[in-house]
Amino acid sequence: TEILERCKRELESGKGASETLSVVFGEVSQLIDGDDDSTESGSTATVGGSRGPLFRSFSYLTRDIDSQVLIIQDHRIVSGFLGDSSACFCNLDAQSQVLDSGFLFEAHRTSNRKEARRILEFGCIIEEGYVVDPENKDNAISITRTFGDKSMRRCGVNSEAEISEPRSFDQNSMALVIATDGLWDLPKVTAEGVSATLSRMLRSGSDHVEIAQQFSSFNGYVPTDDCTVLIATVTAKTP
Length: 239
What we know:
Organism: Rhodosorus marinus
Distance between the termini: 23 Å
Helix content: 25-40%
Number of strands: 12
Protein name: PPM-type phosphatase domain-containing protein
InterPro entries: PP2C, PPM-type-like_dom_sf, PPM-type_phosphatase-like_dom
Strand content: 25-35%
GO molecular function, one term: protein serine/threonine phosphatase activity
């Protein structure tokens, strides 16, 4: 709720998407750090939106974990993110065939080489995919950036958001699959596989709810972690 309302405020004041995300992540990080529980726990969110009606229609899908904020503005998509949720984009032609696809960014985990190097430079340990506090090995976390979890700050885990480069969709439509790690951690899940499934279902006439439900059990596997999936299709005609 804090992220969504603050994004709306900044966008309505005339700020661009990238500046809005930078301001909002900083404010919400300070807000969470002021909570007594933020030393040993964290709080995150997945949010999507645009400057127009699309922003409001996305708001009901913002309740889950993993920190990602996606703004659609002037036919460009910009994302700010922390943690290990992710967003897959899929450029589509007029018949909903895939032109190209991929992830908007790489998750903040120790499998991300840049993140792992940053953690190791703090003199901390990485064991079985976890950042481990060398002074207290019971203190560990599976992501390298998050709101809260202040006890891991001395290990290089921080709440500094990354802001993606704007991605344009002026000429074609673009489908987005924004999901928590409950989806992306499933075996054999790739951006290409997700995009192919999405394209096939759009061409068969499935609506977005049916597509999201399909991803709650992908390739015969059922998520064992929290799983929120947001599906959106945007075009140059989208307000």
